Amino acid sequence: MLSRLTGFNRRPFESLSEQEILALAISSEEDDGRIYLAYADHLRADYPRSARVFEDMAEEEGGHRARLIERHKARFGDRIPLIRREHVRGYYERKPDWLVKNLSVDKIRQTAEDMEAQAHSFYLAAAQRTTDADTRKLLGDLALAEKGHESLARRLGLEHAPEDVKTQEAETSRRKFILTYVQPGLAGLMDGSVSTLAPIFATAFATGDTWTTFLVGLSASVGAGISMGFTEAAHDDGVISGRGSPLKRGLASGIMTTIGGLGHALPYLIPDFTLATSVAIAVVFVELWAIAWIQNHWMETPWSRAIFQVVLGGALVFSAGLLIGNA
After folding, report:
1. Could you tell me which residues are beta bridge partners of residue 11?
2. β-pair type (11-12, 88-89)
3. N or C: the chain end with fewer CB closer than 10 Å?
4. Can you give the pLDDT at residue 69?
């Protein structure tokens, strides 16, 4: 592991022969083609036009690979040495395909342009390391093909993903983010903030003990977070609804539920009961208005309805806890 991190067991680029340079270029084109196809598969359902961009880019890489193989056969024969980017010190690396699932469509487009820029630099350096005229010309042509006046990603983007389509895809991306993270997170924050008001403040006013109140608030918050997280993850696998990964939604809901409850439980770590309660009430006020803002900003709920639903509902639950605690 240490040798991989330090590059101790890798070949320096300057030590590669012309045959090894061609072999490295062939394997790199193969890898990049697979990566572009993985991008296309990942985007096809929600971003079909961008998926088409990456399919064309994979086809372009396949053409580069075929030209390199033909040149290798003409110069060195049919046996291509096994040398890949991870065998060469300082050579650019590629992230594994499974990380695609964690990238947005804009990040994927930017990554593709970075890949082309790296390939362009490689072909320029490779051309300088070769003495055969035909090989040098091929590597120079591929450098121009990878770069050009505009990158392939931009040129294909103009053809397959014009601005109106990109606008639609941006809206689709925003919708997926809302369904996967904002909506379950907001539901968890509302549940954690509102549902724990009554037990926390009822305990506070019934006992007058800040530590007991904190323990009740901590247990209520963590318990509600676990319950909300499992419920969100279990009730919808996201396949039909299009709401995204159940694991991501469950984590968003569970974490935000816990945070919502801990917000007004943590002040009771302050030993002074009056001060702790004052801070907790102030935190509740901030939490409820934050929920109303999220509803208005992300869910496009009118301010009047958001305030009515969240602030009024929270005030009623708080009043119930106050009454029960003083009973």
Report:
1. 88
2. parallel
3. N
4. 94
pLDDT(66) > 90: yes
Q: List the one residue out of 264, 189, 258 whose CA is nearest residue 221.
A: 258
Which range has the top average pLDDT, 69-83, 169-183, 292-306, 312-326?
69-83
Residue 249 clears pLDDT 50, i.e. is over it: yes
Measured CA to CA in angstroms, residue 171 lies from 47, 62, 165, 167, 174 at distances of 11, 32, 10, 6, 5
Cα-only R_g, the chain:
29
Q: Which residue has the tokens 């591929």?
A: 142
In the chain the domains, ranked by start, together with CATH numbers, are 2-161 (1.20.1260.10), 167-325 (no CATH)
Averaged pLDDT of the chain: 78
Q: H/E element holding 11? A: strand 11-12
Q: Give φ, ψ of 11 to 5 degrees.
A: -80, 140
The distance from CA 247 to its chain's CA centroid, rounded to whole angstroms, is: 14
Q: Is the pLDDT of residue 81 over 70?
A: yes
Measured distance CA(275)–CA(79) in Å, rounded:
79
How many CB atoms lie under 10 A from the CB of residue 141? 14
